[in-house]
Design brief:
- The protein is α/β, with parallel strands linked by helices.
- It has helices spanning 70-73, 86-102, 122-127, 139-147, 159-169, 187-197, 211-217, 233-242, 274-286, 292-317, 331-338, 371-375, 389-395, 397-401; strands at residues 13-14, 21-32, 48-56, 62-64, 110-114, 131-136, 152-154, 172-178, 198-209, 229-230, 246-253, 259-265, 322-325, 348-350, 367-369, 380-383, 405-408, 414-415.
- The chain has three domains: 13-65, no CATH class; 82-292, Rossmann fold; 319-415, Rossmann fold (3-Layer(aba) Sandwich).
- α3 (122-127) links the parallel β5 and β6.
- The longest helix has 26 residues, at 292-317.
Length: 416
Protein backbone atom coordinates (compact mmCIF):
# COMPACT_ATOMS: atom_id res chain seq x y z
CA UNK A 1 0.00 0.00 0.00
CA UNK A 2 1.41 3.38 -0.95
CA UNK A 3 1.88 5.67 2.03
CA UNK A 4 0.72 9.26 1.49
CA UNK A 5 3.15 11.99 2.43
CA UNK A 6 2.77 13.45 5.91
CA UNK A 7 3.46 16.87 4.32
CA UNK A 8 1.01 16.68 1.40
CA UNK A 9 1.61 18.63 -1.77
CA UNK A 10 -1.88 20.11 -1.86
CA UNK A 11 -2.92 23.40 -3.42
CA UNK A 12 -3.83 26.09 -0.91
CA UNK A 13 -7.55 26.64 -0.45
CA UNK A 14 -9.57 29.68 0.52
CA UNK A 15 -10.87 29.69 4.09
CA UNK A 16 -14.64 29.19 4.22
CA UNK A 17 -14.84 31.58 7.18
CA UNK A 18 -12.58 34.55 6.38
CA UNK A 19 -11.34 34.00 2.81
CA UNK A 20 -7.74 33.63 3.96
CA UNK A 21 -5.28 30.96 2.88
CA UNK A 22 -5.72 27.41 4.19
CA UNK A 23 -2.55 25.30 4.16
CA UNK A 24 -2.94 21.52 4.19
CA UNK A 25 -1.12 19.61 6.91
CA UNK A 26 -2.58 16.08 6.72
CA UNK A 27 -3.79 13.95 3.81
CA UNK A 28 -5.78 10.89 4.91
CA UNK A 29 -6.31 9.63 1.36
CA UNK A 30 -9.56 8.98 -0.46
CA UNK A 31 -12.37 8.18 1.93
CA UNK A 32 -15.98 6.99 1.62
CA UNK A 33 -18.95 8.57 3.35
CA UNK A 34 -18.42 7.70 6.99
CA UNK A 35 -22.02 6.63 7.66
CA UNK A 36 -22.70 4.91 4.32
CA UNK A 37 -22.99 1.34 5.55
CA UNK A 38 -23.70 -0.81 2.51
CA UNK A 39 -25.89 -3.87 2.17
CA UNK A 40 -23.85 -6.98 1.28
CA UNK A 41 -25.53 -7.29 -2.13
CA UNK A 42 -25.13 -3.62 -3.04
CA UNK A 43 -22.96 -3.24 -6.14
CA UNK A 44 -23.15 0.48 -6.91
CA UNK A 45 -19.82 2.25 -6.87
CA UNK A 46 -19.12 3.95 -3.56
CA UNK A 47 -18.75 7.69 -3.42
CA UNK A 48 -15.31 8.79 -2.24
CA UNK A 49 -13.48 12.06 -1.78
CA UNK A 50 -10.00 13.29 -0.78
CA UNK A 51 -9.88 13.73 2.99
CA UNK A 52 -7.37 16.55 3.45
CA UNK A 53 -7.35 18.90 6.45
CA UNK A 54 -5.66 22.29 6.71
CA UNK A 55 -5.38 25.37 8.88
CA UNK A 56 -6.10 28.99 7.96
CA UNK A 57 -3.10 31.19 8.58
CA UNK A 58 -5.34 34.26 8.92
CA UNK A 59 -8.17 33.26 11.31
CA UNK A 60 -6.71 29.95 12.59
CA UNK A 61 -9.76 27.88 11.57
CA UNK A 62 -8.90 24.23 10.94
CA UNK A 63 -11.06 22.79 8.15
CA UNK A 64 -11.36 20.26 5.37
CA UNK A 65 -10.17 21.30 1.93
CA UNK A 66 -12.90 19.36 0.11
CA UNK A 67 -16.62 19.65 0.81
CA UNK A 68 -18.94 16.66 0.48
CA UNK A 69 -22.47 17.54 -0.73
CA UNK A 70 -24.68 17.73 2.34
CA UNK A 71 -27.46 15.59 0.84
CA UNK A 72 -25.05 12.66 0.58
CA UNK A 73 -24.36 12.72 4.31
CA UNK A 74 -27.64 13.76 5.93
CA UNK A 75 -30.78 12.08 4.65
CA UNK A 76 -33.68 9.83 5.63
CA UNK A 77 -31.44 6.81 6.31
CA UNK A 78 -28.86 8.62 8.43
CA UNK A 79 -28.07 5.97 11.06
CA UNK A 80 -26.60 7.79 14.07
CA UNK A 81 -28.79 8.02 17.18
CA UNK A 82 -27.69 10.34 19.99
CA UNK A 83 -29.69 8.36 22.55
CA UNK A 84 -27.64 5.23 21.87
CA UNK A 85 -25.22 6.14 24.66
CA UNK A 86 -26.35 6.44 28.28
CA UNK A 87 -23.49 8.88 28.86
CA UNK A 88 -24.67 11.18 26.08
CA UNK A 89 -28.31 10.90 27.15
CA UNK A 90 -27.34 12.10 30.61
CA UNK A 91 -25.21 14.85 29.09
CA UNK A 92 -28.05 16.24 26.97
CA UNK A 93 -30.55 15.99 29.79
CA UNK A 94 -28.23 18.16 31.86
CA UNK A 95 -27.91 20.65 28.96
CA UNK A 96 -31.69 20.96 28.72
CA UNK A 97 -32.07 21.41 32.47
CA UNK A 98 -29.43 24.14 32.41
CA UNK A 99 -31.24 26.04 29.65
CA UNK A 100 -34.54 25.69 31.48
CA UNK A 101 -33.01 27.06 34.68
CA UNK A 102 -31.05 29.95 33.25
CA UNK A 103 -32.27 30.97 29.77
CA UNK A 104 -35.85 29.76 29.29
CA UNK A 105 -37.62 31.23 32.28
CA UNK A 106 -39.19 34.31 30.71
CA UNK A 107 -42.59 34.80 29.13
CA UNK A 108 -43.18 32.30 26.34
CA UNK A 109 -39.55 31.16 25.97
CA UNK A 110 -38.49 29.50 22.73
CA UNK A 111 -35.46 27.34 21.89
CA UNK A 112 -34.34 26.08 18.47
CA UNK A 113 -31.91 23.21 18.08
CA UNK A 114 -29.87 22.81 14.88
CA UNK A 115 -29.41 19.10 14.21
CA UNK A 116 -31.79 17.79 16.87
CA UNK A 117 -31.27 14.15 15.85
CA UNK A 118 -33.57 11.81 17.80
CA UNK A 119 -34.65 14.57 20.19
CA UNK A 120 -32.51 13.50 23.13
CA UNK A 121 -32.03 17.08 24.39
CA UNK A 122 -35.38 18.57 23.40
CA UNK A 123 -37.37 15.78 25.08
CA UNK A 124 -36.61 17.35 28.44
CA UNK A 125 -37.57 20.80 27.14
CA UNK A 126 -40.81 19.43 25.71
CA UNK A 127 -41.65 17.68 28.98
CA UNK A 128 -41.29 21.03 30.76
CA UNK A 129 -43.89 22.53 28.41
CA UNK A 130 -41.46 25.00 26.84
CA UNK A 131 -41.86 26.01 23.23
CA UNK A 132 -39.17 24.45 21.04
CA UNK A 133 -38.29 23.37 17.52
CA UNK A 134 -35.68 20.95 16.23
CA UNK A 135 -34.32 21.44 12.71
CA UNK A 136 -32.84 18.32 11.15
CA UNK A 137 -32.68 17.12 7.51
CA UNK A 138 -32.50 13.43 8.48
CA UNK A 139 -36.16 12.50 8.52
CA UNK A 140 -35.59 9.05 10.01
CA UNK A 141 -34.15 10.40 13.25
CA UNK A 142 -36.68 13.23 13.10
CA UNK A 143 -39.54 10.74 13.26
CA UNK A 144 -37.98 9.18 16.33
CA UNK A 145 -37.87 12.62 17.94
CA UNK A 146 -41.49 13.32 17.05
CA UNK A 147 -42.58 10.02 18.58
CA UNK A 148 -40.91 11.26 21.76
CA UNK A 149 -42.99 14.43 21.80
CA UNK A 150 -40.51 16.78 20.12
CA UNK A 151 -41.49 19.24 17.39
CA UNK A 152 -39.17 18.85 14.38
CA UNK A 153 -38.80 20.61 11.06
CA UNK A 154 -37.35 18.30 8.37
CA UNK A 155 -34.91 20.73 6.81
CA UNK A 156 -31.35 22.02 6.64
CA UNK A 157 -30.76 25.05 8.83
CA UNK A 158 -29.71 28.07 6.77
CA UNK A 159 -30.70 31.71 6.40
CA UNK A 160 -33.95 31.05 4.52
CA UNK A 161 -35.00 28.39 7.05
CA UNK A 162 -34.27 30.67 9.98
CA UNK A 163 -36.18 33.60 8.50
CA UNK A 164 -39.20 31.38 7.91
CA UNK A 165 -39.08 30.08 11.50
CA UNK A 166 -38.82 33.63 12.84
CA UNK A 167 -41.82 34.69 10.75
CA UNK A 168 -44.01 31.80 11.89
CA UNK A 169 -42.75 31.04 15.40
CA UNK A 170 -41.15 34.27 16.58
CA UNK A 171 -37.58 34.80 17.70
CA UNK A 172 -35.66 32.36 19.90
CA UNK A 173 -34.06 32.89 23.30
CA UNK A 174 -31.55 30.12 22.60
CA UNK A 175 -30.25 28.52 19.43
CA UNK A 176 -28.31 25.36 20.24
CA UNK A 177 -26.27 22.85 18.26
CA UNK A 178 -24.34 19.82 19.48
CA UNK A 179 -21.90 18.03 17.19
CA UNK A 180 -23.63 19.74 14.28
CA UNK A 181 -22.24 23.22 13.71
CA UNK A 182 -18.86 21.75 12.75
CA UNK A 183 -20.68 19.85 9.97
CA UNK A 184 -21.80 22.98 8.11
CA UNK A 185 -19.36 24.64 5.68
CA UNK A 186 -21.66 27.55 4.77
CA UNK A 187 -21.26 29.50 8.02
CA UNK A 188 -22.16 32.80 6.34
CA UNK A 189 -25.71 31.58 5.78
CA UNK A 190 -25.85 30.08 9.28
CA UNK A 191 -24.87 33.33 10.97
CA UNK A 192 -27.28 35.32 8.82
CA UNK A 193 -29.98 32.89 9.96
CA UNK A 194 -28.97 33.15 13.60
CA UNK A 195 -29.06 36.94 13.37
CA UNK A 196 -32.57 36.79 11.90
CA UNK A 197 -33.91 34.24 14.40
CA UNK A 198 -32.24 35.12 17.69
CA UNK A 199 -33.72 37.65 20.08
CA UNK A 200 -31.53 40.69 20.81
CA UNK A 201 -30.43 39.27 24.18
CA UNK A 202 -30.44 35.64 23.03
CA UNK A 203 -27.47 33.29 22.83
CA UNK A 204 -26.15 30.84 20.28
CA UNK A 205 -24.58 27.84 22.03
CA UNK A 206 -22.74 25.06 20.27
CA UNK A 207 -20.46 22.23 21.34
CA UNK A 208 -18.11 20.39 19.02
CA UNK A 209 -14.78 18.51 19.06
CA UNK A 210 -11.92 20.73 20.24
CA UNK A 211 -8.87 20.90 18.00
CA UNK A 212 -6.63 21.18 21.06
CA UNK A 213 -7.83 17.81 22.34
CA UNK A 214 -7.59 16.25 18.89
CA UNK A 215 -3.95 17.30 18.68
CA UNK A 216 -3.16 16.22 22.25
CA UNK A 217 -4.89 12.85 21.99
CA UNK A 218 -3.83 12.28 18.38
CA UNK A 219 -7.46 11.42 17.67
CA UNK A 220 -7.13 11.62 13.89
CA UNK A 221 -10.33 9.61 13.47
CA UNK A 222 -12.27 12.72 14.47
CA UNK A 223 -11.45 13.87 10.93
CA UNK A 224 -14.07 12.56 8.50
CA UNK A 225 -16.58 13.81 5.97
CA UNK A 226 -19.15 15.16 8.43
CA UNK A 227 -16.62 17.16 10.45
CA UNK A 228 -15.78 20.09 8.22
CA UNK A 229 -14.48 22.45 10.92
CA UNK A 230 -12.35 21.81 14.00
CA UNK A 231 -12.81 24.69 16.38
CA UNK A 232 -10.58 26.48 18.87
CA UNK A 233 -11.46 29.47 21.02
CA UNK A 234 -9.14 31.54 18.83
CA UNK A 235 -10.84 30.56 15.58
CA UNK A 236 -14.36 30.81 17.04
CA UNK A 237 -13.66 34.33 18.35
CA UNK A 238 -12.45 35.38 14.89
CA UNK A 239 -15.44 33.74 13.21
CA UNK A 240 -17.92 35.33 15.63
CA UNK A 241 -16.45 38.79 15.09
CA UNK A 242 -16.48 38.30 11.33
CA UNK A 243 -20.26 37.79 11.46
CA UNK A 244 -21.18 40.38 14.09
CA UNK A 245 -21.16 38.30 17.28
CA UNK A 246 -18.95 37.95 20.35
CA UNK A 247 -17.56 34.87 22.09
CA UNK A 248 -18.75 35.26 25.68
CA UNK A 249 -18.15 31.85 27.26
CA UNK A 250 -16.30 28.58 26.76
CA UNK A 251 -16.60 25.36 28.69
CA UNK A 252 -14.36 22.32 28.33
CA UNK A 253 -16.27 19.04 28.00
CA UNK A 254 -15.03 15.46 28.27
CA UNK A 255 -17.64 13.92 25.95
CA UNK A 256 -16.66 12.56 22.53
CA UNK A 257 -12.96 12.64 23.26
CA UNK A 258 -12.85 16.31 24.26
CA UNK A 259 -15.12 19.15 23.20
CA UNK A 260 -15.72 22.80 23.99
CA UNK A 261 -19.09 24.42 24.48
CA UNK A 262 -19.03 27.93 23.01
CA UNK A 263 -21.55 30.67 23.78
CA UNK A 264 -21.98 33.59 21.38
CA UNK A 265 -24.02 36.75 21.84
CA UNK A 266 -24.45 40.06 20.11
CA UNK A 267 -21.79 42.65 20.99
CA UNK A 268 -22.33 44.31 24.35
CA UNK A 269 -25.25 42.08 25.37
CA UNK A 270 -23.36 39.66 27.64
CA UNK A 271 -20.27 40.03 29.81
CA UNK A 272 -17.52 37.67 28.65
CA UNK A 273 -16.63 35.02 31.23
CA UNK A 274 -13.02 34.84 32.40
CA UNK A 275 -12.80 31.36 30.91
CA UNK A 276 -12.67 32.89 27.43
CA UNK A 277 -9.48 34.84 28.10
CA UNK A 278 -7.95 31.87 29.91
CA UNK A 279 -8.49 29.50 26.98
CA UNK A 280 -7.34 32.09 24.45
CA UNK A 281 -4.14 32.59 26.46
CA UNK A 282 -3.57 28.82 26.69
CA UNK A 283 -3.96 28.47 22.92
CA UNK A 284 -1.55 31.32 22.27
CA UNK A 285 0.99 29.75 24.63
CA UNK A 286 0.91 26.44 22.78
CA UNK A 287 1.06 28.10 19.35
CA UNK A 288 -2.27 26.90 17.96
CA UNK A 289 -2.27 29.76 15.44
CA UNK A 290 0.98 28.54 13.88
CA UNK A 291 1.88 25.50 11.77
CA UNK A 292 4.11 23.51 14.15
CA UNK A 293 1.45 21.72 16.27
CA UNK A 294 -0.35 20.57 13.14
CA UNK A 295 2.77 19.34 11.38
CA UNK A 296 3.78 17.41 14.51
CA UNK A 297 0.30 15.90 14.67
CA UNK A 298 0.60 14.68 11.08
CA UNK A 299 3.88 12.92 11.86
CA UNK A 300 2.30 11.26 14.90
CA UNK A 301 -0.71 10.09 12.87
CA UNK A 302 1.47 8.30 10.34
CA UNK A 303 3.36 6.61 13.16
CA UNK A 304 0.05 5.35 14.60
CA UNK A 305 -0.91 4.04 11.18
CA UNK A 306 2.27 2.01 10.89
CA UNK A 307 2.04 0.68 14.45
CA UNK A 308 -1.58 -0.39 14.07
CA UNK A 309 -1.00 -2.15 10.76
CA UNK A 310 2.05 -3.93 12.17
CA UNK A 311 0.07 -5.15 15.17
CA UNK A 312 -2.96 -6.35 13.20
CA UNK A 313 -0.87 -7.96 10.47
CA UNK A 314 1.17 -9.79 13.09
CA UNK A 315 -1.96 -11.16 14.78
CA UNK A 316 -3.32 -12.29 11.40
CA UNK A 317 -0.09 -14.15 10.64
CA UNK A 318 -0.40 -15.91 14.00
CA UNK A 319 -3.98 -16.93 13.16
CA UNK A 320 -5.42 -14.86 16.01
CA UNK A 321 -8.95 -13.48 15.63
CA UNK A 322 -9.58 -9.75 15.96
CA UNK A 323 -13.01 -8.10 15.98
CA UNK A 324 -14.05 -4.48 16.15
CA UNK A 325 -16.22 -2.80 18.76
CA UNK A 326 -18.43 0.07 17.60
CA UNK A 327 -19.19 0.79 13.92
CA UNK A 328 -18.63 4.48 14.46
CA UNK A 329 -18.47 7.13 11.77
CA UNK A 330 -14.87 7.85 12.70
CA UNK A 331 -13.91 4.19 12.25
CA UNK A 332 -14.23 4.79 8.50
CA UNK A 333 -11.21 7.07 8.66
CA UNK A 334 -9.18 4.52 10.62
CA UNK A 335 -10.10 1.58 8.38
CA UNK A 336 -9.56 3.30 5.07
CA UNK A 337 -6.46 5.25 6.04
CA UNK A 338 -4.83 2.21 7.62
CA UNK A 339 -6.08 -0.37 5.09
CA UNK A 340 -8.07 -2.41 7.62
CA UNK A 341 -10.52 -4.82 6.01
CA UNK A 342 -12.07 -8.18 6.94
CA UNK A 343 -8.68 -9.83 6.51
CA UNK A 344 -7.49 -7.99 9.63
CA UNK A 345 -10.75 -7.38 11.54
CA UNK A 346 -13.31 -10.09 10.85
CA UNK A 347 -16.45 -8.39 12.22
CA UNK A 348 -17.45 -5.11 13.84
CA UNK A 349 -20.09 -5.35 16.57
CA UNK A 350 -22.50 -2.46 17.07
CA UNK A 351 -25.73 -1.68 18.91
CA UNK A 352 -27.33 0.34 16.07
CA UNK A 353 -29.96 -1.76 14.22
CA UNK A 354 -29.62 0.43 11.11
CA UNK A 355 -25.97 -0.64 10.75
CA UNK A 356 -26.32 -4.32 11.58
CA UNK A 357 -26.21 -6.73 8.64
CA UNK A 358 -24.37 -4.15 6.56
CA UNK A 359 -20.73 -3.54 5.65
CA UNK A 360 -18.41 -0.83 6.88
CA UNK A 361 -17.82 2.02 4.40
CA UNK A 362 -14.98 1.43 1.99
CA UNK A 363 -13.38 -1.61 3.59
CA UNK A 364 -16.55 -3.78 3.82
CA UNK A 365 -16.15 -5.42 7.21
CA UNK A 366 -19.45 -7.08 8.26
CA UNK A 367 -21.36 -5.31 11.04
CA UNK A 368 -23.16 -7.61 13.46
CA UNK A 369 -25.41 -7.22 16.54
CA UNK A 370 -23.61 -6.83 19.83
CA UNK A 371 -24.87 -10.18 21.10
CA UNK A 372 -22.29 -11.89 18.90
CA UNK A 373 -19.45 -10.12 20.71
CA UNK A 374 -20.42 -11.95 23.90
CA UNK A 375 -21.59 -15.24 22.39
CA UNK A 376 -18.42 -15.88 20.36
CA UNK A 377 -15.69 -13.77 21.93
CA UNK A 378 -12.47 -13.19 20.02
CA UNK A 379 -9.12 -12.88 21.82
CA UNK A 380 -8.72 -9.25 20.68
CA UNK A 381 -11.14 -6.37 20.12
CA UNK A 382 -10.25 -3.14 18.35
CA UNK A 383 -12.03 -0.37 20.25
CA UNK A 384 -13.32 2.03 17.60
CA UNK A 385 -15.76 3.65 20.05
CA UNK A 386 -12.91 4.78 22.33
CA UNK A 387 -14.74 7.98 23.23
CA UNK A 388 -17.21 5.83 25.21
CA UNK A 389 -14.45 3.75 26.79
CA UNK A 390 -15.55 4.08 30.41
CA UNK A 391 -19.11 3.06 29.63
CA UNK A 392 -18.01 0.20 27.36
CA UNK A 393 -15.40 -1.29 29.69
CA UNK A 394 -17.90 -1.34 32.53
CA UNK A 395 -20.51 -3.01 30.33
CA UNK A 396 -18.07 -5.53 28.82
CA UNK A 397 -16.10 -6.47 31.95
CA UNK A 398 -16.67 -10.18 31.19
CA UNK A 399 -14.60 -9.84 28.02
CA UNK A 400 -11.46 -8.89 29.91
CA UNK A 401 -12.19 -11.29 32.76
CA UNK A 402 -12.27 -14.12 30.20
CA UNK A 403 -8.83 -13.12 28.90
CA UNK A 404 -9.90 -10.81 26.08
CA UNK A 405 -7.64 -7.87 25.26
CA UNK A 406 -8.57 -4.44 23.97
CA UNK A 407 -6.62 -2.77 21.16
CA UNK A 408 -6.55 1.02 21.19
CA UNK A 409 -4.98 3.51 18.81
CA UNK A 410 -5.68 6.81 20.61
CA UNK A 411 -3.39 8.44 21.66
CA UNK A 412 -1.10 5.57 20.62
CA UNK A 413 -1.36 1.91 19.70
CA UNK A 414 -1.50 -0.27 22.80
CA UNK A 415 -2.98 -3.56 23.97
CA UNK A 416 -4.38 -4.32 27.42
Amino acid sequence: MAKPSARPAQPAAACRVCGGTVSAFLDLGRQPLSDAFRKPDETAQEFSFPLVVGNCRDCSMTQLLHEVPRERMFHAEYPYRSSGSTTMTAHFTAVAERFLAHELGGADPFIVEIGSNDGVMLRTVAAAGVRHLGVDPSSGVGLTAQHGGVRVRDDFFQESTARDIAATEGRADVIYAANTFCHIPYVDSIFAGIDALLRPDGIFVFEDPYIGDILDRRSFDQIYDEHFYFFSATSVRAMARNFGFELVDVERLEVHGGEVRYTLARPGRRRADARVAALLDAEAHRGLAGPEPYERFAREVYAIREDLRTLLTGLREQGVRVVGYGATAKSATVNNFCGIGPDLVETVYDTTPEKQGRLTPGTHIPVAPMAGFRADPAPYALLYAWNHETEILAKESAFREAGGRWIRYVPEVRVD
